[in-house]
Design brief:
With about 375 residues, the chain is an alpha/beta fold. It has 2 domains: about 5-175 and about 345-365, Rossmann fold; about 175-345, Glycogen Phosphorylase B (Rossmann fold, 3-Layer(aba) Sandwich), CATH 3.40.50. It has 14 helices and 13 strands. The strands form 2 sheets. A 7-stranded parallel beta sheet has the order 3-2-1-4-5-6-7, with helices on both faces. Strands 10-9-8-11-12-13 form a 6-stranded parallel beta sheet, with helices on both faces. Helix 1 (about 15-30) packs across helix 14. The longest helix has 18 residues, at about 350-365. The protein is globular.
């Protein structure tokens, strides 16, 4: 039976950089696959349709505009009304803010549970409480939940009543066009971090660990990615430690600039305290960079034996890995080779296939499992 699936793509916007990218890559892979069915992609006022426009030219894909944004009061009315009109076999909520009266069969992707696991990073208790309520309600209402790693799947089953027995692990992927040759050794003398500066990313400790490296080493640190002015602590630490000439902050680099940063770096360091998946680690491996990463959350799972791992709560542990990466060319070569092998286990086509299998399972079961 050909399925009709409505996928909420309102996260495909700069406001949701990680979730938006994962959603866009998944629907692109679905549109290019041989799945038996059609997709209706919902977009709204917070995101322009350009990234989805090329998909709209494909026969099994329709684009539908919504006037309400995610988490808005208007969405509580507009989305259920739209779904009753479209009558899809499955609605896929790619964000946890699910309207209370959403009809039909529902699949929800929950990427992480940071507000529950790290409440100290949400100083506004009302905001934290609302997010936790939304997530719990979405888990109860969903017929199936998608998690991007086994680690996150376990967190969901453990912390969200009603999620047990209906969580499916569907790992994210890497675009094969991003995978580079493993033979290069850039040697430009800088370590690279790519990601946001949100508190759980642990950037102040990364800066502190970098400060522990011997001053006579000709090495720099580049911190690149989405920047939130509410969290200036890493810049403040760099200034306080006298590292302004050795640490470069690049806010919201373009894709072209990001590729250049990956290609010019000596190694990649990712100190996050928690990730639902940890896509930057795989993308660094795909760019043929040796990687050192945190041993927390899903990161060790995603990295496998292809990276150095450290305790992200101890600056000396992070520093020791950076020292090894900088000083040992044979180690870098080994990690590059291992990383490229690890990356081959992940692809967006596999993500799309696993996601569609969840749709088919829920549609065939008539709803909840």
């Amino acid at each position: 039976m050909a399925l009709h699936v409505a996928i909420d793509c309102r996260v495909v916007s700069p406001h949701f950089p990680g979730i938006g990218r994962a959603t866009l890559e998944t629907v692109q892979a679905l549109a290019q696959s041989n799945v038996d069915g059609r997709m209706t992609l919902l977009y709204g006022p917070g995101n322009a349709p350009e990234p989805l426009a090329s998909l709209g030219a494909l026969k099994p894909v329709d684009l539908v505009h919504m006037s309400s944004s995610l988490r808005s009061a208007q969405d509580q009315i507009e989305l259920p009304r739209l779904l009753r009109r479209l009558r899809p076999d499955v609605y896929h909520a790619t964000y946890y803010a699910l309207p209370l009266a959403v009809p039909g069969r529902v699949v929800v992707t929950i990427y992480d549970l940071i507000p529950r696991l790290f409440p100290q990073y949400w100083p506004n208790p009302l905001v934290r409480h609302v997010i936790n309520l939304w997530t719990a309600q979405a888990a109860r209402r969903a017929d199936a939940i998608i998690a991007s790693s086994a680690s996150t799947g376990k967190d969901i089953a453990r912390l969200l009543p009603g999620a047990a027995g209906k969580t499916h692990v569907v790992p994210l992927g890497v675009n094969p066009k991003r995978v580079k040759s493993g033979s290069r050794e850039p040697g430009q003398g800088y370590l690279l971090y790519v990601g946001s500066n949100k508190p759980h990313k642990n950037l102040p400790r990364l800066v502190g660990a970098f400060a522990r490296l011997p001053r006579d080493r000709e090495i720099r640190l580049v911190i690149a990615g989405a920047w939130d002015d509410r969290y200036p602590e890493s810049k403040q630490a760099a200034r306080r430690l006298g590292l302004d000439d050795r640490i470069t902050f690049e806010h919201r680099p373009s894709e072209q600039r990001l590729d250049a940063l990956y290609q010019g770096a000596l190694a990649f360091v990712f100190p996050s305290l928690y990730e639902g998946f940890g896509l930057p680690v795989l993308e660094a491996m795909a760019a043929s960079l040796p990687v050192a990463t945190s041993d927390r959350g899903s990161l060790a799972e995603v990295a496998g034996d292809a990276a150095l791992v450290f305790d992200p709560t101890r600056e000396e542990s992070i520093c020791a890995c950076m020292e090894r990466l900088f000083g040992d060319g044979d180690l870098r070569a080994d990690l590059r080779a291992r990383g490229l092998e690890q990356v081959r286990r992940y692809s967006w086509s596999h993500t799309a296939s696993g996601t569609w299998q969840v749709y088919e399972r829920i549609a065939a079961s008539g709803g909840r499992e």
